[in-house]
Amino acid sequence: MDHLEKRLLKHKTMLSFFLNLYRFIKILFKGIKKDGEFRFLFIFIIILLTGSTVFYYKFEHWSVIDALYFSVMTMATIGYGDLVPTTPFTKVFTIIYTFLSIGAFVAFTAKMIGLTFENRQKQTLKIKQHIKGIKDKPKK
């Protein structure tokens, strides 16, 4: 692959990333605005992340970014193992946090996927109705 092809591939990848980010944000705002369950899950996840970040910052003496990083990695069930709770108290908290956060994360993700499919179905229906309208117009 020559230099120009590599640059084009890099730009195509970045374009794809920003397009997907735009779609994610669009669905996120739509869900918050129109769906009560989605809004509850979103707020609950923010509360869980904020609470656990403050907890680990205070009791494990991690930096805010490390505490948030650990909270997100635990919620998403990634768990690299680079940060671990060190006291029995923080371990018990982590057990409780894990059960709450994974359940909320899975429910939120499922709701997000549901909204994405619903949005796609509406777009497809609009296109089909538009095409049908064009076909049904009498020719002059």
UniProtKB/TrEMBL annotation:
Q: Which UniProt keywords apply?
A: Ion channel, Ion transport, Membrane, Transmembrane, Transmembrane helix, Transport
Protein's cellular compartments: Membrane
The UniProt entry lists membrane topology as: Multi-pass membrane protein
Chief subcellular site?
membrane
Q: Mind listing the GO biological process terms from this record? A: monoatomic ion transmembrane transport
Q: Which Pfam families match?
A: Ion_trans_2 (PF07885)
Q: Does the keyword Protein transport apply?
A: no
Which stretches are transmembrane?
38-57, 95-117
Q: Which residues form the Potassium channel domain?
A: 44-114
Record flagged with keyword Iron: no
Q: Which InterPro entries match?
A: 2pore_dom_K_chnl (IPR003280), K_chnl_dom (IPR013099)
Where on the tree of life does the source sit, at the highest rank? Answer: Bacteria
This chain's protein is named: Potassium channel family protein
**Organism annotation:** Snuella lapsa
Q: What is the lineage of its organism?
A: Bacteria, Pseudomonadati, Bacteroidota, Flavobacteriia, Flavobacteriales
